[in-house]
Every structure is written in C-alpha cells, then in structure tokens.
NAD-dependent dihydropyrimidine dehydrogenase subunit PreT (Falsiruegeria mediterranea M17), 444 residues
Amino acid sequence: MAQGQTAPGIVSGRLSSEDIAANFDDLHPAYAPHEAAVAADRCYFCYDAPCVTACPTDIDIPLFIRQIQTGHAQAAAKTILDQNILGGMCARVCPTETLCEEACVRETAEGKPVEIGRLQRYATDTVMAAGVHPFERAASTGKTVAVVGAGPAGLACAHRLAMLGHDVVIHEAREKAGGLNEFGIAAYKSTENYAEAEVDWLLKIGGITIENGSALGRGVTLDGLRDAYDAVFLSIGLGGVNALRAEGEDKDGVRDAVDFIADLRQAADLSALPVGRNVVVIGGGMTAVDAAVQSKLLGAENVTIAYRRGREAMGASRFEQDLAASKGVKLMFNVQPVAVHGNGAATEIELEYTSSAGGELTGTGETTRLAADQVFKAIGQTLEGAPSELALDGRKIAVTGAGRTSVNGVWAGGDCAAGGDDLTVTAVAEGRDAAMDIHEAMKG
Ligand SMILES: Cc1cc2nc3c(=O)[nH]c(=O)nc-3n(C[C@H](O)[C@H](O)[C@H](O)COP(=O)(O)OP(=O)(O)OC[C@H]3O[C@@H](n4cnc5c(N)ncnc54)[C@H](O)[C@@H]3O)c2cc1C
Ligand code: SF4
C-alpha cells in the first residue's frame, strides 16, 4: 500500500509501483513508422543546413532524414553513427531545443522545428533492434591504447580506435560501463536499460576490452599506462561535487543530487527508493531539474528548485524548466542557501535573496525559510583524481587541438577536459576527434 505524498520524512513507497512506472515512462516516445515518415516530410533538405552546423558531432541531418523519408532507416542510422557512435543515446538526451532543432529553419520560420532528435532515435533504434553493427575493424595495427573511463567520451574514442585496427583497453573505476549515461541521465530519458544495451551494441566492433573496477589513482598510474600502451586517453568525467557552503549542510537529508540520481538509475524497484515529503534542490542546471522532476515523480509532495540567479541565467534549457513546472516543481529564482535547520536531520532550509549588479552576486540580507526534509546539492561537479603531472586550464585538464594534454602521448576529452559544453554529445565528439588524432600520432 502506498504511503502517500504527505507521509513525513524521507520514505519509500509514496506512490504505487504502477503509478511510478507510469510517471517514469519514456519522455519522448519512439515514432511509429508512419509518424517518422510524416516528420521526415517536414524537412526542406536545406543546402548548408544550419542544423548540421549546430550539431557538435556534425551529423549530416538532411541526408539521414532523406534516407528515412525514402524508407531506408538502417542507412539513416549509418549516416548518424558514422559521426556519432552514441547517436541512439544522444537522440534521447541531447537538448535539441538549444542545438539542431533551435537552428532548424522551420523553427525560425514557424516556431516548430523538424523533430530531428526523434527521427534520429527512429533510425538508430531500427539498426539496434535488427542487431546490426554497421562497422568493421580494419586490419590490426599492433598498436594498443589505454582509455581511462567508460563514459561517452571514452566509449566513442575506443570505438573509433578499434575500428581503425588498434586494440583498446578501457580502465573503468565502476563495476559497470556507460559513465553518466548509466548513472546520471534521467530515468525517463533512458528507459528499458538503454545505456547498457547501447554499450553492448558498441562493443560488437571487437578489439575493446573493459576492465571494470580498474581506477587510475588506485593501483593504476599514468606512468604505468604510458609504459604499457602506445597512447592514453583520459575521459574520467567530473567525479567531485561543489560544497554548498551553508551552515548545517552535514545534516541528515542533505545529499548530492548526482548520488541520488545514480541510486535511482540503479534501483530495481523505484517504489523502494526513499524520497522526502518536502524536497529542495539547490542549483540551476540539468542535474537540478533531473533531481527535482524525479523526486516529484517518486511522489514527493512539494519540490522546489532554488537558484541563486534569474531564470535567464539557468543552465537548464527553457524546455527543461517547463518540463519541471509541468510536473509541479516550483522554481525559485535569486535565492541562495545560508543554512539548513533541524535537530540532526534537516527540517527547513533558509534561503537568502540575492541581487546582481555587473555580474556580481550579493546577498540582500533578507531571508525566507522552506520546509525541507531532503535537500539536494546540484551546484556543479568538479574534476577529481586527475594525475598531478597534467597541466590544468582553470579547473579542468588543459588540452590543445584534438585533446592533446601537456604530457606527451596522453590525450583527454569529455567533461574532464577544458573547453566545450558538458553534454553527452560534446563528449562523444571529443572522444572521436581525439581517436583520430591518436591514430595519426601513432602512425609516427
Ligand atoms: C545528473 C546529470 C544529468 C545529465 N543529463 C544530461 C542530458 O540530459 N543530456 C546531456 O547531453 N548531458 C547530460 N549530462 C551531462 C553528460 O552526462 C556528460 O556531459 C557526459 O556524460 C560526459 O561524458 P564523459 O565521458 O566525459 O564523462 P562521464 O560520463 O562522467 O564518464 C566518466 C567515466 O570515468 C570513470 N572514472 C572516473 N574516474 C576514474 C578513474 N580514476 N579511473 C577509471 N575510471 C574513472 C567514471 O566511473 C565514468 O564511468 C548530465 C549530467 C549529469 C550529472
Ligand atoms: S534546418 Fe530543418 S529543414 Fe533544414 S535540413 Fe535541417 S532539419 Fe531539415
């Protein structure tokens, strides 16, 4: 029997399993073939298409849409996967509303873009459902490459290198591959264990070994990898989390949003996952929205996102902000946390109003309190565990060109490397481009 949304504290089973399953249904369900045909028909097949320029992986979007339109979904998938081997996941998670679909001429003219993301999903789902892997390895080169981290950047790099005939070993700290595709992306974007299925499909290229539980910094050293392999690619993501810097942030009920989402993604039964009655999420990016929306879908009664700046500065796109609002999440702007109150466990959060002048944020001194038995910190991830010999650029690994680090023979890409947006598609592009550069460098 479900406990209901008003049960006090952080408890499991607020909603019935059936309600939770319905809540976590696919955000953008797959097209049926006739829907895909209708959607493809809307494309003008523009010359010099702005949607392509807006895609970080440069997929030939008009070509793949034309292939769908003419009934060749598997050829369309090949066009996509040539550029983006995780095109299936990107079709589910890309903020298309700020990338290809924002640039689409039909968005500019009519406010209704061609639904590129859903068409991409249609094509890539077709090829995966058929169990086809449309790439073959080149003859072995005898070269070996170590990839550290099996997230989107590492997987994309490994696949490209394997295709070019190199042997790749991925050292992955966790027991499961996929990185944030497996542990971070919202459950309603990656349903039916898609992340794991996609990794299995990607590995069909051959020549890639994943060593789970093998972590750089825990027995594995950069020097050791440089000695043992012809090249090294670092794709360790951002494992650390910024501190809230609010009094009482160590109280029970205060947690990193990313950990909560990882638990959620790995839960066999979502109704068994505890969630607060009054949840407050601190932050303004995708992670904040994902933690808030998923808390609401698990049955929290009141969920608030508290962001220190105005709506226009939020990292989450307008689509995501609207998604949160449509699920009943309240958005509060221009407030920052100053204290978490409660005797041992959180019961309230105190927020101070902010004002900003010339980009500088200051507290006004005026505060307000919200009931909060669960507080999620979603204020950004930080680089953790990067080898000390690597030069940094700000708080990330410094790179030049296609991911070359300051250490000879070592490349880096994805979230851990400086430059670029922290998005799945950017990580894939950087992994792929680093692989091509590594390939050229190994030719000597
Ligand atoms: C909650 C959340 C939601 C997101 N939602 C979206 C979204 O909807 N759309 C989108 O485009 N982007 C989203 N992102 C961003 C996206 O997930 C990342 O940009 C992307 O996963 C970065 O890929 P990566 O390969 O660089 O790193 P990661 O995916 O973080 O992978 C890094 C891998 O390295 C491993 N690792 C770390 N340290 C070591 C070590 N020392 N030794 C060995 N292995 C190690 C990790 O275990 C992990 O598997 C989201 C991010 C978060 C946190
Ligand atoms: S901009 Fe829009 S209409 Fe033009 S090719 Fe791209 S998807 Fe088609």
Observations:
- The pocket of flavin-adenine dinucleotide (ligand 1) is lined by residues 93-94, 148-154, 171-174, 179-180, 184-185, 189, 215-217, 235-237, 239, 258, 261, 286-287, 290, 385, 414-416, 422-425, 427 (CB under 6 Å).
